Amino acid sequence: MDNVFLQHNILYAxxxxxxxxxEHYFPDHALxxxxxxxxxxxxxxxxxxxxxxxxxxxxRNELFKKLKKAGPNxxxxxxxxxxxxxxxxxxxxxxxxxxxxxPYKGSAxxxxxxxxxxxxxxxxxxxxxxxxxxxxxxxxxxxxxxAIELLLQTGDVYRQxxxxxxxxxxxxxxxxxxxxxxxxxxLLSFAKLAGRSLSTFKRDFKKIFETTPEKWLxxxxxxxxxxxxxxxxxxxxxxxxxxxFENLSHFxxxxxxxxxxxxxxxxxxxxxxxx
Length: 275
Known about the structure:
Distance between the termini: 43 Å
CATH class of the largest domain: Mainly Beta
Structural class: alpha+beta
Number of helices: 12
CATH topology of the largest domain: Jelly Rolls
């Protein structure tokens, strides 16, 4: 089990498994520090590794695969994150007369590990891990405001990063889905990221792919899994998470229905053909 609590947009999470894999869709900006262990983030942009002490700002409306690992001495992965939601940032922009910003075009993950002021800021949150009830709404509001101020003092790019309020525009759905089918997120999240309501997303999807999103996603993921295993690149226990399935048993069942043999049988068949 994970030790997780969220107090007014401030999250502390501590995992107890040696390796944990998950998918992430950030509807809000997230500012976090790795307290122990390691987190690896993978996206279409590339990869980013958070080790103990790493501070990172992650952009909203991004898709990531996340792999958390224990530290070198077996300490569980743990981190503190702040979520900077649009309502809070709009209010801040109004209160501080921040003008409309140009669309942000930079990296989705910014490394702030060398920022001593942010390090000191996160140190001030550590006592609340053992006393979360002391982190009331007023203190949390002050802490969120402090974090925003510290980011703005770091450089002009953070003003554009934080206060670009543009929502995803309607994009080429076929290209987008072929690039992102491996992310195991709700259809509603796919729809938002593609700049559509859920009903419009489903309607446009049916026109393009001539099937439902659910059927297409499963077929596409199974095809990719078949390719990765038949090429000898990955084992079934590795591939099911890579292509967006939640658990191995569901993946094995769906794979056999589609191809007539289990993932294990396919890899054994491939291995035998090599000798």
